[in-house]
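tool_call predict_complex ligand=erythose-4-phosphate
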Amino acid sequence: MKIFLDTASIESIKKFVDMGVVDGITTNPTLISREKGHPEDIMREIVKIVKGPVNLEVVATNTNDMVEEGLRLKKFGENVIVKIPMTMDGLMAVRKLKEKGIKTNVTLIFSSNQALLAAKAGASYVSPFIGRLDDVGQDGMTIIRELVQIFKNYGYQSEILVASVRHPIHVIEAGKLGAHIVTLPPEILGKMLTHPLTDKGLSLFLSDWEKVKKEHKYNI
Ligand code: E4P
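tool_result ok
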């Protein structure tokens, strides 16, 4: 299962990339708005730091402008994936960008039907927002279950990128269902990393080792 980091924070990206667990990055206009600095500098920096796919979102809303913006974003680096919102104009932009050899990620997906259309239009990634569905009382993970089945039935090549992840259990559920990718805010990745019993166990090992050192005058 691939793990993407859902952030535009250079500091978090550097930290987790160094840990070797990040396969790619997703950003969106909201995430970029939270960072200091010029948006274009931030996007270029992310593309430089990360070897895997970096998803940068267009803010244009009509097909031609989306394509133009996508082509401009792609110039930041070979690993750029153009993120396109799930609209009719968006799907037409997906098709046109695909014809130019540019990979896209269709974002703001809230139903399996939307994802099916995005896959048919030629998106490399489809991004269902499961947490936002949970927030309004609809089970987000149902879409992931349906999509894994539908894409398998018909051999669609688009990867299912589980977005709007709210907690580590979402990650386990997505993994059990066979989703290709989860994109995680840094806090969720932090939660996956730690367990109180790990901390407790480590502190016991270290204090027992202190006793060994004392008893045997052993200095390691
Ligand atoms: C993914 O590409 C989106 O940027 C993101 O997962 C949205 O998450 P949110 O619902 O927490 O804003």
